[in-house]
Amino acid sequence: MIELDDLPELIDPVMVAAFEGWNDAGDAASAAIEHLDRVWKGEVFAALDAEDYYDFQVNRPTIWLDGDTRRITWPTTRLSVVRLTEPRRDLVLVHGIEPNLRWRSFCNELLGFAHELGVETVVVLGAMLGDAPHSRPVPVNGTTSDPVVARNVGLEQSRYEGPTGIVGVFQEACAHAGMPALTFWASVPHYVAQPPSPKATLALLRRLEDFLDVNVPMGELAEDARAWQVGVDQLAAEDTEVAEYVRSLEAARDTEDLPEASGDAIAAEFERYLKRKGDQPEG
After folding, report:
1. What's the pLDDT at 272?
2. What per-residue confidence (pLDDT) applies to 158?
3. Which of 91, 237, 239, 241 has the most crowded CB, counting CB atoms within 10 A?
4. Whole-structure pTM value
């Protein structure tokens, strides 16, 4: 472990984590963490020792020039803190790369920080490839393996069985350590899997906004998401097979969403809209 500063004193902290790699389709989850770090001016206070967890032939270091001095940036996982004023609370942001080695030790080290900082809840962001049409709202599902969290937050308790990545392993490590944890998963259209995926990033941040009851400054992200969708529309229109496939996904999605178009669902979405609008400064 490399400590870059003394551990800060935090107020009602929540840890929010995302990891590049297998659980980060379209780089949507890692881009969400980068956005939070940027708009809230996160202060890095610690980093994990890259020698412990990464195979540098798989995740290679990069070399760069600082004036006339050559420097190396090693792949690692960094922790930063952001301090929110409304509501008064702090976030611990974990931005990392899925480790190549010693996953259990990796999770235990992150949990050590969480316990020492008094973290109350861990939220992990992930993104997976799915049969989601790019022209519809990005599905974001919340899951947890903790029955208490599932009941308190109203989430589905995960029943997934099969191969998993560091997101699943970290969530399980949290559960075994008695740390409440949940994951928000964005579904990225598999036919446009290459990064970036700003629409999925925006959807994850919106879901995090609702969960934390905070306003995230989105900057140009909404415009980037619209431009991305227009670009994919144009690419799909140039290939009749792709266009037909997208129409089939849209029909399936629209049929699936019909039962959810209830008065309660519409009212909840309208409340979220009014809250965000009311918190924006008047121009």
Report:
1. 56
2. 79
3. 91
4. 0.86
